[in-house]
Hints:
Distance between the termini: 38 Å
Shape: globular
Radius of gyration: 16 Å
Strand content: 15-25%
Largest sheet: 8 strands, mixed
Number of strands: 10
Amino acid sequence: MNIAILGTGMVGQTIATALIQKGHAVMLGSRTADNEKAVAWVKANGNHAFNGTFADAALFGEVIFICLNGNGTVDALQSTKPSNFADKVVIDLTNPLDFSSGMPPSLLPQYCNTWSLGEEIQKQLPTAQVVKALNTVTAALMIDARLVNEGNHHLFICGNDADAKNTVKHFLQGNFNWKPEYILDLGDIKNARLTEGIIPFWVGVMHAEGSAVFNFMIVK
């Protein structure tokens, strides 16, 4: 499968490398076609690794991961055409965190309580099938759910399209060892407000535990 990763940071490269190792063709997208981190990643990952602009990557990918800084996500998407994303599953990992006042972060004011970055991404990409997922766990756990409790812990997803969410569930199971029974569908994309909203708490737990390799589990 051809997969696009928008973003060249640690999360984007972690996912991209894991997918190369699973046999997929992956393109890292950035603002410029000659992004140094993307070029270096391609050199390190063989002939199924590619890089290009955000627009190049969106055209390339059958499935698209958005792994961008929350504060710059909308500008990045507006640098390409919404039609590049048309009818594709877009997995949104972003979190609208504001570190301007130090730790712990708060949420960017335009993306909290009554609006989320996930909803804004769906608005910016009206013909795409946006699924919010993986934003509540650290990068190492994103690509291998077995790192915590043998995979017995919950991942929260939401989105407007049931088929797209089913595609994401199967993709995460097949590539990243997430158990379907622990992938909890919260409903439509509006509920990205919930999964984004717990991230400042997640950061607090990370500091208290001294580790980012943990997750939440719903017990009833």
